[in-house]
């Protein structure tokens, strides 16, 4: 009975994590604006305009992820360009003091690693000199 209960709880936890990763763009934008408001003390007008910018960014990023035809390198590059554009648009809405703080936030942001391109396999290199035949060994104890 205890195992069944623990299995059920584990399954519920796994399902919760699975669905939590697929938050809609509106929720992501709202969360980001809330964080920026706390860090930058945004005005109501700034919150509204930055929410629109962040929402468009979230929708565009979701569309990029859904496009399976792009290589991982192209996808990472497109996400980087999208982030740069979004950062520039957000900075336009900020005061000079807020821009300085936002630059710090951007600098502290973890960089997404671009996947390394697959390296071609090289054939094994033949040794320069032929291997010497081994001499037969005497069994121990004789």
Automatic annotation (TrEMBL):
UniProt keyword annotations, A-Z: Signal
Compositional bias segments (type: Pro residues): 117-127
Leader sequence residues: 1-20
UniProt biased composition (Basic and acidic residues): 76-114
Ranges where the record places region Disordered: 65-142
Top-level taxon: Bacteria
Biased composition (Low complexity): 128-142
Protein name as catalogued: Uncharacterized protein
Species of the source: Sphingobacterium micropteri
Lineage: Bacteria, Pseudomonadati, Bacteroidota, Sphingobacteriia, Sphingobacteriales
